User: What shape does this take?
Amino acid sequence: MKVEGQTLLDLRAKVHDLERQLTQNKKKLEELERKSKEQEKDIQEKEKSLKQITDKQTSTEKSLMDEISGMQNNLKEKTEEITSLNNKVAKLEKDLSEKNNETLSLKDSLNKISSNKDKEIENIQNAANQKNREIDRFKNDLEQKNNEIEKLRQVLEQKEKEIANNNANITKKLEEINNLNNKIKVLEITISESKSSQYIIDEIRSIMQQKGFLSDKEFEDLIK
Assistant: This one.
């Protein structure tokens, strides 16, 4: 019985150890599963990040390729422009050389004729001086004429004023003559009833010679 009891205790101890080991293994397994999930999640995130990096790198590579292609095209255009400019420069240098030769030829010709031109220039300057003197003389004459015209204008204005005054006097005299004619007509009508006509006419002439006009009162006194 003691042997069986001891065996039972040993078995229980082994079972207990096995259960303890099982529990530990279970915990280890859970820990491994947790770490595995974390690693899997980390791997997924790294794969996602790697994909983003790959996509970005692909986009960057495409952008760089496009930029390189554009730069190559631009370089080709610039090379063609440089070639064209070099051709133009060569042509301009040739034209400049020809123009320099023409300039030298013109200078030689100018030096040959400059001695004769000096005399012509002197003659032209003398003629110009003569013309300037004539212009000054014409200016003086013009100023004198303007002064004379101004004086004549003033005289004309004065004459116009005198004519206006004379016209006013003439108008006044005409009115007096008309009045006198009217008075004479009245006198002719009434003369037979008053004094003799010759006497009245003589009196009127005397008054007109003395005063230059005949008033209404004087006329009435004569015909009374």
Observations:
- The chain has two domains: 7-178, 184-221.
- The radius of gyration is 71 Å.
- The chain has a mean pLDDT of 75.
